[in-house]
Write a structure and sequence with these properties.
18 strands; six-stranded mixed beta sheet; 38% helix; Protein-Tyrosine Phosphatase, Chain A; alpha/beta; tetrahydrofolylpolyglutamate synthase activity; metal-binding; 587 residues; eight-stranded mixed beta sheet; Folylpolyglutamate_synth_euk; 21 helices; 2 domains; UDP-N-acetylmuramoyl-L-alanine:D-glutamate ligase
Length: 587
């Protein structure tokens, strides 16, 4: 049973991360790369040496001791060691966003809307606000996590920033940590006098890098997404953001945040600051709203605004299209819009006449890969990919609703080659100890009216409803294991190397357990036939299997493939499709 993590954790994570980093023997000085791509890869390889291994993470989870009260003092030390001061952070005029679901999408909306706003220049003209955006995880490249003006850092800039931080930390590696101020319970304990690790772990290092980059590029506003939780998250080193936001809450990361919605809400509320307004979505889980209100009062927030999706968006004056698909994005858009408006009131230029129109256009233009994303690729004409990272029961219910809506909206007309509905497939995995049995019910219950595939609304094959034709439970590996370690290194992008996920067991026990969990759930009563269930060791193997059943005849409806669950799987799928623009040949 997961601990509620309400005690006083020690420095287990810091020590484990330091041990892992030391064992990886990272370079003490930047190598001399041949070109920008080589420089980027060398930087990412060094960054990967700071990852905490899956085995260490599992040990910590079992002890219920993943929270680290040293986190904020250590982050303060790291920033001090590279020369980033509290005054520098204040100049970034930060928007800080936490939540279980939708915080990345909300951050992307905020960034896109603020980039549509402008500020006066010395010559009387106006220029767009310069934005910084820090999010996690990445899907294709690590550089996605740190964006300036909406674009990931170019490889050369990423490498330059990485080695700048690395060098500064090397020069100050013998620094000692002051008594931690984040948790008085540590005062006077041995943990309070522990030396600062020579370098942060992977996520903290990227957080430090983001602040270094945003300061160096002189952004007007930095939008910072929490990693996990809030109180002890590395991003919570920000002493005084302009405004904070909390999106929808649910049960996740229980080893870190506790196993009740009240405990999770309390941790997320740790980003609240005295005198700083906090914008939250209307919560539908347990007593989350009550906890957030109480925490806002305890932290001395300027005010806590709970916003309702459609009502907040309506303030723009008319119906507003949202660039991200899914009805659940209305709640995220409401938080994003309110965050932008509060930021403009407190730190930015006064709202002027063209801003509402600019915000409407920006909301319609926002894009965020891997979230309710539809891909139709010329080289894969027999498939439509529906891709949505979703790893809580609530987010998977939203994913199921979105996918069902796409099937109604995309109902094909009968074609000469086929009067049947399209084949539908599910590709799924979950990671980090999440239980498939609690995640799959919304997907298991999905049925699709056969009439969706008939322009006249009449089931052409006599079935009242259909479910998925194929379900494949898969690892988050892009490719099947190569024959040798040399081939393995060559076949895996450095951006996608992940020590947090353990080495794959060739027997695929986790995938077989997911398949068993699927079978234990009741099949939809209305469906005439149930799905064929399989397991696969990689995205490559899963798609090859599905393509064997795809109807490639001209005019046939394309197979609808829903890829969901872990964001690692989403990233692996996007990586595979990027590197394999043509579908495998028909066998």
């Amino acid at each position: 049973m997961a601990s509620t993590a309400t005690g006083t954790p020690g420095a287990t994570v810091a020590a484990a991360a330091a041990a892992a980093a030391a064992s990886a023997s990272p370079p003490s000085a930047p190598p001399q790369p041949q070109d920008a791509h080589d420089a980027y890869e060398q930087a990412v390889l060094a960054l990967n040496s700071l990852q905490t291994t899956a085995a260490i993470l599992e040990q910590v989870r079992k002890k219920g001791n993943l929270l680290n009260c040293q986190s904020i003092p250590e982050m303060q030390s790291f920033l001090s060691r590279i020369g980033v001061t509290d005054a520098d952070l204040a100049r970034l005029r930060i928007i800080h966003i936490a939540g279980t679901k939708g915080k990345g999408s909300t951050a992307a909306m905020v960034e896109r809307m603020l980039r549509a706003c402008s500020v006066p220049t010395a010559d009387g003209r106006r220029r767009p606000l310069r934005t910084g955006l820090f999010t996690s995880p990445h899907l294709l490249t690590v550089a996605e996590r740190i964006r300036i003006d909406g674009a990931p850092l170019p490889p050369s800039v990423f490498a330059q920033t990485f080695w700048s931080v690395w060098h500064k930390l090397e020069q100050t590696r013998h620094a000692t940590m002051p008594n931690p101020s984040a948790d008085p319970a540590l005062a006077g304990t041995p943990a309070a006098q522990m030396p600062v690790p020579a370098k942060p772990n992977y996520f903290r290092y990227l957080t430090v890098m983001a602040f270094e980059a945003f300061v160096a590029h002189g952004v007007d506003v930095a939008i910072i997404e929490c990693g996990v939780g809030g109180t002890y998250d590395a991003t919570n080193v920000v002493p005084q953001p302009v405004v904070t936001g909390i999106t929808s809450l649910g049960i996740d990361h229980t080893a870190v945040l506790g196993n009740t919605i009240e405990s999770i809400a309390q941790h997320k509320a740790g980003i609240m600051k005295p005198g700083v307004p906090c914008v939250t979505t209307m919560q539908h889980a347990g007593r989350a709203d009550a906890v957030l209100r109480a925490e806002a009062q305890r932290h001395g927030c300027a005010d806590q605004l709970a916003v309702l999706g459609d009502a907040a968006i309506a303030r723009l004056g008319r119906a507003v299209p949202i660039g991200l698909a899914g009805a659940h994005q209305h709640a995220n858009a409401a938080v994003a819009l309110t965050l932008v408006q509060r930021w403009l009131e407190r730190a930015g230029p006064a709202l002027h006449a063209h801003v509402p129109a600019a915000l409407r256009a920006a909301l319609g233009a926002v894009q965020w890969a891997g979230r309710a994303q539809t891909l139709r690729l010329p080289g894969w004409p027999a498939c439509v990919f529906r891709i949505d990272g979703a790893h809580t029961p609530e987010s998977l219910a939203a994913c199921a609703a979105w996918f069902a809506g796409t099937q109604r909206a995309a109902a094909p007309s009968p074609s000469p080659s086929s009067s049947l509905p399209p084949r539908r497939a599910l590709v799924f995995t979950c990671t980090h100890g999440r239980q498939a049995g609690t995640l799959l019910p919304a997907l298991r219950a999905l049925t699709f009216s056969a009439a969706d595939a008939d322009a006249n609304g009449d089931p052409s094959d006599g079935r009242a409803a259909a479910t998925f034709d194929d379900v494949v439970f898969v690892t988050s590996d892009v490719y099947e294991p190569p024959a040798s370690p040399t081939q393995a290194a060559a076949s895996t992008k450095v951006d996608y190397q992940n020590a947090n996920v353990g080495a794959r067991d060739a027997a695929l026990p986790a995938q077989h357990e997911m398949a068993a969990a699927w079978r234990r759930l009741p099949a939809p009563a209305a469906a005439a036939m149930d799905a064929a269930v399989a397991v696969a060791g990689s995205v490559e193997a899963a798609l090859a299997r599905l393509m064997q059943g795809a109807d490639r005849r001209p005019g046939a409806p394309p197979m609808e493939i829903l890829v969901t669950g872990s964001l690692y799987l989403v990233g692996a799928t996007l990586t595979y499709l990027e590197e394999n623009p043509q579908a495998p040949p028909d066998r």
